[in-house]
Amino acid sequence: MRLLTMIKRILIEMLRDKRTLALMFIAPLFILSLLYFLFQSNTNQTATLGVRNVNSALVKAIDNKHVKIRQVTSDTSAKSIIRDDDYAGVLTQKGNHLTLTLQNSDQSKSAILKQSLQKGQIQLKSKAAATTIKAQAAALNKMQKSLAAVTRQMGGASKAIQPIRGEQKLAAPNYHLVTHYLYGSQDSTYFDTLLPILIGFVVFFFVFLISGIALLRERTTGTLNRLLATPIKRSEVIVGYLLGYGIFALIQTMLVVLFTIYVFNIQIIGSIWNIFLINIMLAVVALTLGLLISTFASSEFQMVQFIPIVVIPQIFFSGIIPVNQMADWLQPVAKIMPLYYGAQSMSNVIEKGATFVNIAPSLGVLLLFMIVFLALNLLAMRRYRQV
Amino acid sequence: MTNTIQVSNLEQGYGRTVVLKDINLTVTSGEILALIGPSGAGKTTLVSTIMGMLRPMRGQVAVLNTPMPNRPLLAKIGFMAQTDALYSSLTAQENLLFFGAMQGISRKKLREQIPHAAGIVNLVSDLTKQVSDYSGGMKRRLSLAIALVSDPEILILDEPTVGIDPELRQQIWHELHQLAAAGRTILLTTHVMEDAEEADEVMMIRNGEAIAQGTPAELIANYGVSSVEEVFLKAGRQQDATTHND
Ligand SMILES: Nc1ncnc2c1ncn2[C@@H]1O[C@H](COP(=O)(O)OP(=O)(O)OP(=O)(O)O)[C@@H](O)[C@H]1O
Ligand SMILES: [Mg+2]
């Protein structure tokens, strides 16, 4: 009865607070979309390359969809060409000597040019190698024929030549590389790797902020003290908050997950139910953590001050930087971050198709976090009423 | 007449600082006790201790013969805090419904009680307004209505008459006397001497000590003065004299 009234009150308050409502539902989608476009533009990036006196075969080999080739005829220095025409680089050939001058104000463009040049050179070399092999093979063939003629003349020793012919057959094929991707495809971008982590983070962050500030407001306006002057149990207050804000966290989670799936059209290998499950667990942990932290803050401003301490480090350990590549002493730190478990399971479900059994240990840890935070909340509530 | 509130040898404070020393008081059912004293004297601290929000440092506090703090007993106490604690995005009606439900009152009974409680403080026509649109005095009145809405056995009111006009003050006192006549116990704090004169029993607190206690008439007679205000001033001077002698 009390619990229902508590929940109802939270719902009414929330529905009348349009700005918080917008922050909770629109801001996460906005941030995710922004990131989507930021990373998207990066993958379609092209670099303009000026070429001067470069062998046309090499130019053809360098050319790909990320490089725009411009023929340069003037004799001015590469540097001034780059400056004047805003090319990402200029490639000049003098005899056997290639010089690549890069603008290098955007390292990603430099990387594109260097990579394309390297690829082009390899392509040319392998073609040349193939031509040489063909020529050698032809020469060998000739030799064999003449040898055969000789042996025929010498009388029936042709069997000895067979192995040589076999070896030639092996060396001759022109290698063609085909790349297979275990996860994702050749269209995979950094964003795809980042997205599962980002979903988890966005859900965690907004639920943390809003639940924390809500309880804080209740404290600073004195309504919490007033509430505790009624026979309500401390646990009822906490559970009421958990359920009341839990409803909003649930809607927010659904919205974020469905948005990323349908709008960004990302490929989910695992089950979508597991994704909901992970995010709901993350939201509940964020909720209990937000309530707990708010008891140590005495104003909204102080609550915001907790973000660099409580939330930001979690991003670093959530898998944006692979945890197993961190310094040894740093790796255990990740293990005390709820977001680490959430983000990791999200990546595993979305990219590797992890099943419930696979993610169960991580979910268990999140559950443990929730229980610990809940217990601490009950203890912290003692500050306001001792029974 | 049974003792409903019993405080004996109470010492109370925050952390190391002692705010109240050796407080003894008894309130019986049907009685109105007013706590008066200068700002910072410790009135709110005493009230919070009786409510069980604070655990006594020393001494005992019992309400209805039950030692405080005691959570279930809070259902029998209607409380009005010194600072208004209301949900400003809810209407007055919603606030009354919410706190009434928290107090453990059924919805049906609340529907009957709300017009009555709102009537005492003249808020009936403003019940559907959001509290954020209320004036300071209206908020004060709503806080009082919330304390009254559960029709409790004991009323504990921390400065209920602040920001309330004289006409409404009379109306409220009329209601309080009626409640006392019906056997309810009322404990309130105030700075206003007129309030003290309305009460059955007055306790003056100054610097954490009870400096005078009795019915207004007794006090006026004992101190040989003509009003409660003069009692208050004289008792204060006497307290200063004794502490200076120490
Ligand atoms: N939460 C608290 N922590 C520490 N000290 C406190 C706290 N609340 C009150 N005090 C101190 O206790 C003393 C008594 O305060 P209290 O609020 O009981 O006074 P009061 O008689 O109600 O005053 P007023 O008439 O202004 O409401 C004051 O000196 C105050 O500084
Ligand atoms: Mg006070």
Describe this structure in words.
Chain A is mostly helical and 387 residues long. Chain A has 16 helices and four strands. Chain A folds into two domains: 47-181; 190-384, no CATH class. The longest helix of chain A is centred in the middle third of the chain and has 48 residues, at 107-154. The two termini of chain A are 20 Å apart. Chain B has a single domain (3-245), classed as Rossmann fold, CATH 3.40.50.300. Chain B contains eight helices and ten strands. Chain B has helices at residues 43-51, 92-102, 107-120, 136-149, 166-181, 193-198, 216-223, 228-245, and strands at 3-14, 17-28, 32-36, 58-63, 66-67, 77-80, 154-158, 185-190, 201-206, 209-214. Chain B has a six-stranded mixed β-sheet, sandwiched between helices. Chain B has a four-stranded antiparallel β-sheet with strand order 2-1-4-5, covered by helices on one side. Chain A binds chain B through residues 1-2, 5-6, 9, 12-13, 16-17, 221-223, 225-233, 384-387, and chain B through 51-55, 69-75, 77, 79, 81, 83-90, 94, 97-99, 101-104. The complex binds adenosine-5'-triphosphate and magnesium ion.
Properties at a glance:
heterodimer, A: 387 residues, mainly alpha, 2 domains, 4-stranded mixed beta sheet, 16 helices, 69% helix, 6% strand, B: 246 residues, alpha/beta, Rossmann fold, 6-stranded mixed beta sheet, 4-stranded antiparallel beta sheet, 8 helices, binds adenosine-5'-triphosphate, binds magnesium ion
